[in-house]
């Protein structure tokens, strides 16, 4: 009996989480539609916004499942940028954008690692130098 209650509570929690995600997608789509409507002076009906929101949510679910399958097929438990590129392969402009952003992030991460390494080397040099000077002072006395 207790297991059934736990299962029901877990199911309710998943449903609630899904509803919150749907609401967030609906809100974001509404904001984007308002922005486009003000730029183009062409308003969107509430039904159109709801339809775009539902379509977006379902497409995201499909993307998530596809990404999971790509990673599994590669015998990985983590989705990576190669999976995302594979997902975007049919849209040349999207694939180009993702590739460029990935290269920018890779370059930034490489620069950050180099800075950290240099900082560590500088810190080690500074901490070793006083110790060597102290040791030399003791030997010279």
UniProtKB/TrEMBL annotation:
SUPFAM superfamilies reported in the protein's UniProt record: Histone-fold
Residues annotated as signal peptide: none
GO BP term (any one): interstrand cross-link repair
Domain of life: Eukaryota
Keywords: Cell cycle, Cell division, Centromere, Chromosome, DNA damage, DNA repair, DNA-binding, Kinetochore, Mitosis, Nucleus
Compartment annotation: Chromosome, Centromere, Kinetochore; Nucleus
Ranges for region Disordered: 109-141
UniProt GO MF annotations: chromatin binding; double-stranded DNA binding; protein heterodimerization activity
GO CC, any one term: chromatin
Major localization class: nucleus
Entry's family note: Belongs to the TAF9 family. CENP-S/MHF1 subfamily.
PANTHER family (UniProt xref): CENTROMERE PROTEIN S, CORTISTATIN
The protein, known as: Centromere protein S
Organism: Ailuropoda melanoleuca
